[in-house]
Amino acid sequence: MGQPEKRADGAGPFTTRLTWHPPGGGTAIWESRLARRRGLIAVHPRGAATAHHTSADTTAVARLRSLNAIAATAFIIGGALFAAGAAVAQFGSGDATTCASIYFAGGLFFNIGGYVSLLQVINAPRPVSGGEGALVTRRWRWWSYEPKHVDWLSAFVLFAGTLVFAVNLLDSFLQGLTAQQINRLVWSPDVIGCVLFLISGHLAFVEICHGRPCIRQRSLGWWIVAVNQSGSVLFLVSAFAAYTRPATGSLINADIANWGTLTGALCFSLGGILQHAEHP
């Protein structure tokens, strides 16, 4: 018996949805995010009016639940600390070192959230190659290189963005810098990190919308991506406003920089709260 016929959906080289007919009849649908976050495949049995979901095994479910909880909690705490740092900067209740310390602590949680998000992709269950409409759990891995998978690429770019932010946050402790040095050592990594966050969010939309613009009001995953992408946009606005004018040594607009960071950080915290509900 030959392999079941499959239809692939996605964008460019990325496959985000597979539809095929299992040997027992009917239709099975694998969607990247649904399988990765919730360990599910949608199965439409022959003659049935509605679909049911086939879940991964208990090992995969426990793994996905743990990773999801860790990543979501890390983003909640990281966002809250970034918001606190911005509030301290805006309302003048602490010096520059205090703000930098709060931001740095928040950055560590973003690093954790970014790497655990990557682990979610690396260790996600995959559809059985024979087309039986089931998921298979692979051995645990701490790293993989899968740039042809949009979910891996999105998570990797996100993690890279958190690492670039770490450079920005470490450099913010330096004292006595000129305006040019501040822009090179602090501002530039900040902008690069924001751009990487935006790219990651765009790739997440590609995954959940299968390469086409979409609004899915009833999809929790879509709302998580949208909220996080809003936070990335606000971070980028904040970064542009935080550019230091060489002539005066002052920021373009400190209020916009602080409020952009505060509201963007709260978006990531909200995204983490919503992510807690997106589990197997």
Features:
280 residues; alpha+beta; 2 domains; five-stranded antiparallel beta sheet; 7 helices
> Strand sequence of the main sheet, in spatial order?
1-2-3-4-5
The percent range for strand residues is 5-15%
Number of helices: 7
Number of strands: 7
Structural class: alpha+beta
What value does the Rg take, in angstroms? Answer: 21 Å
Instruction: Give the ordered list of helices and strands.
Output: EEEHEEHHEEHHHH
Count of discrete domains? 2
Average of pLDDT: 88
Stretches with pLDDT under 50, minimum 5 residues:
none
- Ends distance: 33 Å
Shape from CA axes? elongated
The major sheet is characterized as: 5 strands, antiparallel
State the helical fraction.
Answer: 55-70%
Topology:
Elements: E1 6-11, E2 14-20, E3 27-31, H1 32-38, E4 40-44, E5 52-55, H2 58-91, H3 96-122, E6 126-127, E7 135-136, H4 150-171, H5 179-209, H6 220-241, H7 254-275
Helix pairs in contact: 2-3, 2-7, 3-4, 4-5, 5-6, 6-7
Description:
- The chain is 59% helix and 11% strand.
- It has 280 residues and is α+β, with helices and mostly antiparallel strands.
- It has 2 domains: 6-55, no CATH class; 58-275.
- It has a 5-stranded antiparallel β-sheet with strand order 1-2-3-4-5. It has a two-stranded antiparallel sheet with strand order 6-7.
- Strand 6 (126-127) and strand 7 form a beta hairpin.
- The radius of gyration is 21 Å and the shape is elongated.
- The protein starts with 5 loop residues before the first strand and ends in a 5-residue tail after the last helix.
